[in-house]
């Protein structure tokens, strides 16, 4: 029996988190406290008048604006790129499935080095959090059922998600002409319900244009639309 996708993703996340904790526990070292910077020896300031004293106070205030040498501001390091990459990917995957290319693009926007992103994404693929083949199949299935997209439009949709090659070809191989025509009928019938006040020729023109945007061939589009119009008129 096939394991449900949600349970498989949850199990994969647990495996990834355990591996991450195990790796970090063996490499984390106590943070070394910075050595205090020696302070210059203070020389007594001669009394040279109020103007000189005001200038001295201004110089001391300017020196106080230098970066601190102690405290959190002096010891906090930049975030580890690998931690940033994991956080970016998990945050996106918690909302919905994503392709490897989408995750890599999001990591690049956070200035994660490409080598680090590849390493993290490889690990995510190993534990099943990223699977372009499964994502492509899901995308084709839902876009055809919900939007009535044909193969041509589905190909463009996959490319927008960064899915090409074998993963895209395998997903598109499940689309057959009968399914495309059935999807076209569904969207035409649904759209007709909101076109009751329009003339028949206007309906026909708009419905065929809609199917063209969804990637359907002209010949099949006219045939499906004409059948729907005849049925609607009877």
Summarize the structure.
It is built from twelve helices and no strands.
Supply the helix-strand structural class.
mainly alpha
User: Distance between the terminal alpha carbons, to the nearest Å?
Assistant: 48 Å
Give start-end ranges of low-pLDDT stretches.
Answer: 26-33
Number of helices: 12
Number of strands: 0
- Radius of gyration over all CA atoms, rounded: 31 Å
> N-to-C SSE series?
HHHHHHHHHHHH
**Percent of residues in helices:** 55-70%
Commentary on this structure:
The chain has twelve helices and no strands. The chain is elongated, with a radius of gyration of 31 Å. Helix 5 packs antiparallel against helix 6 and helix 10 (177-192) packs across helix 12. Among the domains are: 5-17 and 79-126, no CATH class; 132-172; 177-233. It has 234 residues and is mainly α. 68% of the residues lie in helices and 0% in strands.
Write the layout of secondary structure elements.
Layout: H1 5-27, H2 50-63, H3 72-75, H4 81-95, H5 100-109, H6 114-126, H7 132-147, H8 151-160, H9 165-172, H10 177-192, H11 200-213, H12 218-233
Key attributes of the depicted protein:
single chain; 234 residues; 68% helix; elongated
């Amino acid at each position: 029996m096939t394991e449900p996708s949600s349970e498989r993703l949850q199990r994969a996340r647990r495996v990834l988190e355990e591996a991450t904790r195990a790796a970090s526990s063996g490499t984390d070292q106590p943070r070394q406290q910075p050595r205090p910077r020696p302070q210059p020896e203070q020389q007594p300031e001669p009394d040279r008048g109020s103007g000189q004293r005001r200038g001295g106070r201004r110089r001391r205030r300017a020196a106080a604006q230098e970066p601190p040498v102690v405290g959190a501001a002096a010891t906090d390091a930049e975030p580890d790129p690998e931690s940033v990459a994991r956080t970016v990917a998990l945050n996106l995957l918690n909302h919905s499935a994503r392709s490897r290319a989408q995750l890599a693009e999001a990591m690049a926007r956070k200035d994660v080095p490409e080598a680090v992103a590849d390493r993290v994404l490889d690990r995510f693929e190993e534990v099943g959090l990223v699977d372009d083949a499964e994502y492509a199949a899901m995308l084709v299935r839902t876009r055809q059922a919900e939007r009535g997209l044909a193969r041509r439009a589905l190909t463009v949709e996959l490319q927008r998600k960064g899915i090409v090659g074998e993963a895209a070809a395998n997903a598109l191989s499940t689309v057959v002409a009968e399914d495309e025509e059935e999807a076209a009928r569904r969207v035409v019938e649904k759209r007709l319900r909101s076109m009751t006040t329009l003339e028949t020729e206007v309906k026909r023109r708009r419905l065929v244009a809609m199917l063209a945007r969804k990637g359907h061939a002209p010949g099949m589009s006219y045939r499906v639309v004409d059948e729907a119009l005849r049925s609607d008129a009877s």
